[in-house]
Structures are given as structure tokens and as C-alpha cells.
């Protein structure tokens, strides 16, 4: 019996761009929106190319930093340049290879629920950028991550994360919301990625509105401080565990 591994679509595109294919681009498929192109170059942006909320998040980092869903490592590299001790994590083998080749000093391949290795000190800051809370996949996954994150954080630590309210996707021409109140939460969506004629497996992604995130944080024993919001309904939040 042979097992097949799902193609690393993101990693293929990142490697192609990193190795000189400047026009490399993914196609993003979503169950609640039209297909969209996503240039691989976006994962390699410099500080000046980053949205204001991302730059603010980097400015708010302190201590040892854990960059979850690090992609091509643009945030980790910027933090390294500022003297931070950073560990960059991604599930994509291609992304991990790209980050290593680009000079990110500490890189690991696993998801955000992996336990802290026995020989590793906890972190002062966890960053989840590019709508990074989406990696939790669902409201249940968000609750699970908030519990797990306590095992990754040092005393006085913080999570800096971005997410968005996507209710605008469900508005009709008059601005009325067309939501199925008996269905799943409207911010729980399904994505898949295509590159170079191949499509990867679908994966869940969470866009959580600020009020619901605040409730989840409170239930998990965190304070939520909303640090900024942009014109696309995306926000940056600082989650700080309340000392027990």
C-alpha cells in the first residue's frame, strides 16, 4: 500500500519565485468568494511594502519571538535585522527551505499546535500575521489554540495577531446581510491553492470578528487590546494571558 502526500502548492510557488521566477503566482480558491491571483512576490515583501498593521505588529514585538505561519520569512528577517531572537514556523516544506536559504536562523516545520520542545524556552511574543489567526481554522480551533498558546508563552508574554471581519462578503446590493443563521459561523471558510496546473487539498480558515475574538479571549483568560484597524476590516490585536 502506498500513501500519497498532498502537493506543497505554497512551497512550490515560493521556491519558484525565490529561484528567479519573478512572475510566479498562486490562484486562491475560496468557497465564499471568487478565485483570486496571489503573486508569490507578496510573501517576500520588505518592511516598506508591508501594510501598516504589520509594521505596527513588528514594532510591538519584544523578547524572544515565535513567528507562526511564517511563509517566506519576511517578518522573521525584519525582526532578525532588529536584533530579535526569532523562530519561524510553517507547515510548508518549501517555505521552510526558502526561509533557510534566505537566512532565517531558526526554522521549523510543523503546525501551530505542536508542543514546545523540552529543550526550548518559552517565547515572549507570538506573531500571527497576514490574517494569521486564520491558521486556527475554526472557532473551536481558536479556542484550542488560545489554551495551547499559554504553554508557548513566557510569563508576561503576548500574542500579536491579525484577522478580519468578512461579513461584507455576505451583503446584498442594499447592504443587508444575507447570513444563514442556522449554518456555521460566517467567518469559517474553505480555501485551496493552485500553482502551475496543480491544486492542493482544501483547508479551513477562520476570519473572526473583533467582538467574537474578544469573547473567546476572555473565556480563555486573556485580555484583548485592539491596536489598529485598516480600511479592509482587518485589525491587529494583542492578546495577553491574565496571570492565574
From TrEMBL:
The keyword Methyltransferase applies. One of its GO terms (molecular function) is methyltransferase activity. It holds the Pfam family Methyltransf_23. The keyword Repeat does not apply. Keywords: Methyltransferase, Transferase. CDD domains: AdoMet_MTases (cd02440). It comes from the Bacteria. One of its GO terms (biological process) is methylation. This is Methyltransferase domain-containing protein. It comes from Hymenobacter arizonensis (Siccationidurans arizonensis).
Amino acid at each position: 500500500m502506498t500513501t500519497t502526500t498532498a502537493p506543497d502548492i505554497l512551497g512550490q510557488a515560493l521556491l519558484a519565485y525565490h529561484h528567479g521566477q519573478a512572475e510566479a503566482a498562486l490562484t486562491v480558491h475560496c468557497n465564499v468568494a471568487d478565485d483570486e491571483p496571489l503573486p508569490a512576490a507578496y510573501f517576500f515583501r520588505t518592511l516598506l511594502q508591508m501594510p501598516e498593521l504589520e509594521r505596527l505588529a513588528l514594532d510591538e514585538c519584544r523578547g524572544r519571538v515565535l513567528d507562526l505561519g511564517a511563509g517566506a520569512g519576511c517578518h522573521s528577517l525584519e525582526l532578525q535585522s532588529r536584533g530579535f531572537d526569532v523562530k519561524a514556523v510553517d507547515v510548508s516544506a518549501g517555505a521552510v527551505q526558502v526561509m533557510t536559504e534566505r537566512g532565517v536562523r531558526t526554522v521549523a516545520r510543523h503546525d501551530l499546535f505542536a508542543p514546545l520542545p523540552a529543550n526550548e524556552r518559552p517565547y515572549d511574543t507570538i506573531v500571527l500575521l497576514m490574517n494569521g489567526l486564520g491558521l486556527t481554522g475554526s472557532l473551536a480551533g481558536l479556542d484550542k489554540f488560545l489554551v495551547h498558546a499559554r504553554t508557548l508563552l513566557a510569563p508576561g508574554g503576548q500574542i500579536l495577531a491579525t484577522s478580519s471581519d468578512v461579513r461584507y462578503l455576505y451583503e446584498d446590493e442594499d447592504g443587508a446581510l444575507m447570513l444563514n443563521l442556522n449554518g456555521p459561523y460566517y467567518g469559517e471558510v474553505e480555501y485551496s491553492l493552485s500553482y502551475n496546473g496543480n491544486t492542493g487539498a482544501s483547508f479551513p480558515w477562520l476570519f473572526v470578528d473583533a467582538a467574537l475574538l474578544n469573547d473567546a479571549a476572555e473565556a480563555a483568560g486573556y485580555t484583548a487590546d485592539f491596536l489598529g484597524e485598516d480600511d479592509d476590516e482587518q485589525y491587529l490585536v494583542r492578546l495577553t494571558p491574565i496571570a492565574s
